Every structure is written in C-alpha cells, then in structure tokens.
Amino acid sequence: MAQAKGCTRLKLSGALDKFSYEETTPITGREYLDVNIVDDLINAENADDLLRDLAITISTRGVVFFRSQTNLTNELQKELVHRLGQLAGKPAESSVHTFPLAPAYVPEGGTADRQISYVNSVGFKYMFDKMPNMDKRRFDAAEWHTDIQFEPVPADYTSLRVIKLPETGGDTLWASGYELYNRLSGPYRDFVDRLTVTCRADCVLMAIRNRGEKIEDGERGNPLNLGTALTAVHPVVRTNPVTGWRSVFALGQFSKRINEVNPIESEELLKKFYNMIQDNHDLQCRFKWRNPHDIAIWDNRSVFHRATFDYMDLGERSGNRAVGIGEVPFFDPESKSKAEAEGKEKPKSQVPTKDAVNGNGKAPTTGCHGMPMGGNNHHDMAMGQGHNGMAMAGHGH
C-alpha cells in the first residue's frame, strides 16, 4: 500500500496585501472591505495571483466575505469557485457541482441552472407544502454541515450570494474544523485519525419519495460523482491540501456512522464532535447579510456552516449558490494540526500510524496537490443543504 506524500502548504504571494480587511473573529472569518471581485480580482492583470492568494486565504481563515457585489453574475460566480479550486491545485477532472435534481423552485426572472442552487424562503415554504409531516421547529436553526459531503468527491469552495433580504434575520454561521481538531488531546487525535465515516443524503431520499422526483443523468462535477447510492465513505479527520492542516470532517447531518467502532460508540463520537461546536462558540463566526449581493466564500474541507431560519414572516430571503468540486478526501499522517503548524503547540508523540488512507481504506496515489487520492467506489448523488429552494432536512445557508 503506497503512502501519501507529505503536504507542502501553499504560500501566499502577497498579491492581496493592498486590500483592507477585518478578521471576523480571531479563529475564523475575514471580511474584505471595498473590494469588487469582478473589477479588482477576476479582471485584474494579475488575476491568477490574486485568486490563488484568495483561495489560500479562504482555506486558512475558513470563510471570507465581500459586500455588495452587484456586478457578479451567476456565470462569473461559477467561474470564480472553479478558478479558486484550479489555482489551489484541485484535480483536472473536477469542475463545478451539478445539482442532481431538477430545480424545485426558480425565482421569477431566473433561469433553471443545475450548477446554481437557489436558496429561497418561497421554496422553503414549498417544501413544507409537499412534506406536511415534517416538523418546522427542526429548521429554525439548520444543522451544522459541510456541502455535498455525501458525494465521493465533495466540495472544495462554495460561494453564496444573497440577492434579497428580509427585514432582519437569516444570518449564517461557520465553525472551524481546524480548531475542533486542535482541542482534542494527543491520544484522542491518534484514535480518530484512523477512522472513517459513512455519509449519506437522507434528505434526497425524502425529496424523491415525497415529490416523486428522479435523479438527473450525468456526472456531477467529477467522473466519480454518479449514480443514486447517496452514500460515500470519508476520513473522520481530513487533511486540507491547501494548508496541510488537519480538520475534523465527520460532523453534521450527512455523517451517519463511524465505521470502525460499534453503533453506540459511533453515536457517542458524532455527538462529541457536534457538541464541541455547540459548546465552544469562540470557534464560530456569524455573518449578517446587510446588502443585496453580499457574498460568502468558504472551504468545505475545514469549516462547517448552518443557516438561521428566523425570518419566515419578515420578507423574502433568496440567494444563489455555486459549489466547486475538489478532491477525494484523504488523511495524510505527515500533516499537522493548525496549532502545531503555527508553533502554538509542541509536536505530540504519535502511536504508529497506518498508511495514509482515504475513505475506502486505500492509500491515496498522489500527494496533497493534484489529487485524486485513490478511488471511492461509492457512487453518490448530492443535493441538499437547503438549496434549490428546499432547505432540506436542516441544510441551509
């Protein structure tokens, strides 16, 4: 079994240094002030340098925010997430995620586009009309999750641009998977580093069952993202190929079962990770959408997010989401925690580790950059996360 090459963290060029920003919290989040993504980044002469540094910054800070991007179209939004992934070294066969179901809701004047998911309060109400037995109280605060975790090759960068805003409410929260891992003890890390998690999109099954829909044919952003299995197996701890840092990845509604332990232990582990986010609000940040066309861009490999559905009687909230596809998730035993990489903790002694494994228990065939990192035989469909007008099973932004 081949072992993964060590991760070399991508280095910033300094191209973004001329732009002002504020850190949202000490641990996660950054808001760039007075930057126009189209004019200042995408169309700049040194666009590749700027966007590569932006990708590294997003992977380092977890999520980055820009205000009032009124000239950013859907096509440019898709191009943006794809170029971020390309410039950060994602596999050539990965592109933009294609939604597996036909759009349940398209805003007036909008165009049906399976690479753009419409996050819309009207579609949210449509969902409850179609699924009357679902408990609305469960959706007041959508569960923590990472996008399309149930795909064999899940998301790298997601962008969400909110077009219409309610009077107030509808904030989105992010939480750092790096910091979650930092707060585990050395022996506990040694244990969870070896584990894998089964991820499944139960919400899609519910949509198919209740709405009588079927999955659209074709690849969903990568040749491995095919079929209707709705299931993928990934490492519990994932190495981010951009930073080389370890992050807890087995968290949220899609994470169903830790495979190497018994069902009771699996439930305990998943609850532990979830409760660590709930009980440690300092590893979270909260973003208030203030203006039409505010946008958030985040790295799904190392942050989790959740919506707040507290605005249903306060006006329409709608946004457009585009999701880039990254690499097959992997764990590299040569990678480090963020705290260790930054010199904030001494290297911890490790029990002898197995070869680096991906979700199949097989060794990745390449190093951090230029994945794929070995095959995942589970073909999957993805949906979810409260998009396409259906804040499905607690997923949302």
Automatic annotation (TrEMBL):
Biased composition (Low complexity): 382-397
Keyword terms of this UniProt record: Dioxygenase, Iron, Metal-binding, Oxidoreductase
Basic and acidic residues bias (residue ranges): 333-348
Oxidoreductase is among the record's keywords: yes
Cofactor dependence: Fe(2+)
Keyword flag Iron: yes
Region (Disordered): 328-397
An example Gene Ontology CC term for this record: cytoplasm
Pfam families the record matches: TauD
Family the entry assigns: Belongs to the TfdA dioxygenase family.
Protein name: TauD/TfdA-like domain-containing protein
Gene responsible for this protein: 20343935
